[in-house]
Amino acid sequence: MPSAALWRAGKDNDGNNGGGAKMTPSERRREIVNLVMAERTVQLDQLAEHFGVSRMTIHRDLDLLEERGLLRKGRGGATAEGSLLFESNFHYRMQTEMPEKRALAKAAAALVEPGNVVMIDDSTTTLLLAEEFEAIEFITIITNSLAVCERLRGRPNVHLILTGGSYNDTFQGFYGLICEQTLGKLRADWAFLSASSVIGTSLYHQDQEVVRMKRALMSSAEHSVLLLTHSKFKARALNHFADLSEFEKVFIGADLDDAAAQRLRQADIAFELI
Amino acid sequence: MPSAALWRAGKDNDGNNGGGAKMTPSERRREIVNLVMAERTVQLDQLAEHFGVSRMTIHRDLDLLEERGLLRKGRGGATAEGSLLFESNFHYRMQTEMPEKRALAKAAAALVEPGNVVMIDDSTTTLLLAEEFEAIEFITIITNSLAVCERLRGRPNVHLILTGGSYNDTFQGFYGLICEQTLGKLRADWAFLSASSVIGTSLYHQDQEVVRMKRALMSSAEHSVLLLTHSKFKARALNHFADLSEFEKVFIGADLDDAAAQRLRQADIAFELI
DNA sequence: ACAATTATCACATAAAACATGTTATATTGC
DNA sequence: GCAATATAACATGTTTTATGTGATAATTGT
Fold first, then answer.
1. Average pLDDT for residues B186-190, to the nearest whole number?
2. Nearest CA to the C1' of D20 belongs to which residue?
């Protein structure tokens, strides 16, 4: 019954109805997204009461969120868009586990020295890494991620190279033959990447195209570095793309549970908890 | 003495001082940019009087424009950032001659049929073309322009392919070997491009990298189409990149002066005034 | 088909963000 | 140090955005 806890968390602002703590519209929308994700389905009236706003406002919120592809609106409420697409939605992922991801990014960025050539994949964790690189004196960054590109473009200290390829809006990145061939022709000091899921010592991602891209990335870099939030150990995804042992360094969020850590040690995987 | 004319053009709103016609802040800023470009240098007080606003407002405008790299603020006024960089600044170019560019874009878009594969270069004119393509049922678009990419990404009706390459912030596009090689491997029905300058029947652009990219674009497309605003006939640029006769279709803004049109006809160039 | 529910529309109003001017307080250049 | 110019802080007015309301339309279940 995850339901009760979540709704309470929202309601404890105020004993009575939801009118208590002031919330910005976008905070409210975020919260709606969280609820939809947790519950799979929400009632419009329920939301209106919960947030202490009118039905019309919720209607408008849901319309907007639907347009962004975060949920599907139906009569009387909304549902998660099919949780796979949902889980992989870029904006949503971007907003979860930020502190953990930022810590990982800082640790990884410390490896890089001015003048290095660095490859970054299209994950949200590595996007934060890109932000860390803004501070480095001079650096060449190769990526297939539009988000990284938008973040870094125009900085005088970064030479930005995009792989190109077919654009995929779910991951906000470029994939396919073009991407892989371009990566094949380049050479980097470091490759930083992430994975959707870890099972045992195997890494997985839900999308084939992304898997191919990650393979190409790894084989074009001198050293590969893996960044993993602890939640990746609980997720599931279809396609195997690498083994933990292939990485020079593995950084994992400190919230990793002990059992999982123990298993990694037994498998002789060198990793650092951040 | 371009000075007098420009200031007058702004002033004729109102006989007395500049307080006459209401102007939005961004219109005012645009106008400031125009003035700085024409004069190379402007005085803060002069601007304040001209627009009928306080010094403080002009200060804030200049701060903002400086942040965008459109000018350099100094004591008492501002100067053009070095007019070459300036002239080729993307945002600035984007905002000039819009109606003419839009008309050209509409004419060009009419050539394309659903299912076509289309290449677009990085010019502002062709960016407007991208907007026209949003309406087409299904289309594959290949481009080296980040602006086109941002404009079209996420549309379900367009398959978007980016060439990749080294990012150049002045043109908001990707260039170099990667870009050219990728283009070499692709094949399109149409290539739409523009030029910086036309002299006789020769086309020029100020940047070598861009020239190479345009050549690659043209040689990978079945049909090449050129879009030119009339002002291109007055501009000058260094590098030759093609001849008008190489294009299947040439669309030119209707304001083209008669002498120039006559010369083109004499050279047996088929073109359409839009 | 009918009643009940839910959506949408159009408008009025409230709240937030933005733009501007004013005054007071630094800075700068000479 | 003086004059000119720049910044900062605040008050005010303006525009944009967010919200609620009531009327009207669409839809659902029976």
1. 96
2. A54
Low-confidence ranges of chain A (pLDDT < 70): 1-22, 69, 81-96
Section B34-58 average pLDDT: 88
Strand C neighbours with CB under 7 A? A 22, 24, 44-45, 55-56, 59, 63, 73-77; B 25, 28, 52-57, 60-61, 75
Neighbour-count burial for B54-77, b at 16+ CB within 10 Å, e otherwise: eeeebeebbeebeeebbbbbeeeb
Mutation target vs A (from B91, B142, B162; most A CBs, 10 A cutoff): B162
Instruction: Check residue B92 and give its pLDDT.
Output: 60
CB A227 within 8 A of CB A251: yes
Kindly report which listed range (B6-10, B203-207, B233-237) carries the lowest average pLDDT score.
B6-10
Amino acid at B25: P
**Strand D nucleotides within a 7 Å radius of protein CB atoms:** 4-9, 17-22, 27-28
Distance CA B189, CA B139 (A): 11
Quote the minimal CA–CA distance from B252 to chain A in Å. 31
- Confirm if B2 and B36 have CB atoms less than 8 A apart: no
Q: pTM of the predicted model, to two decimals? A: 0.71
> What values do phi and psi take at B10, rounded to 5?
-75, -35
CA angle A125, A129, A134 (to 5 degrees): 150
Mean pLDDT within B90-96: 60
Distance from C-alpha of A44 to C-alpha of A51, rounded to nearest angstrom: 11
Which pLDDT score is estimated for B131? Answer: 80
Between A118 and B87, where is the model more confident? A118
What would the two tokens of residue A35 be?
A: 């609820």
Q: Which residue of B has its CA nearest to A176?
A: B161
The CA-atom distances, in angstroms, between A137 and each of A125, A143, A153, A190, A254 are 22, 19, 15, 17, 29
Interface test with A, best of B178, B180, B217 (most A CBs within 10 A): B178
How many other CB atoms are found less than 10 A from the CB of residue B29? 19
Q: Give strand pairing partners of A204.
A: A197, A240
Average confidence score pLDDT of chain B: 84
Sheet holding A41-43, edge to edge: A41-43, A77-80, A71-74
Nucleotide nearest B57, CA–C1', reads: C20
At a CB cut-off of 8 Å and minimum separation 6, what does B213 contact?
B121, B122, B144, B163, B165, B173, B175, B179, B180, B183
B202 closest CA partner among B264, B127, B120: B264
Give the confidence band of B74 by pLDDT, cuts at 50, 70, 90: confident
Cβ atoms of A31 and A39 closer than 8 Å: no
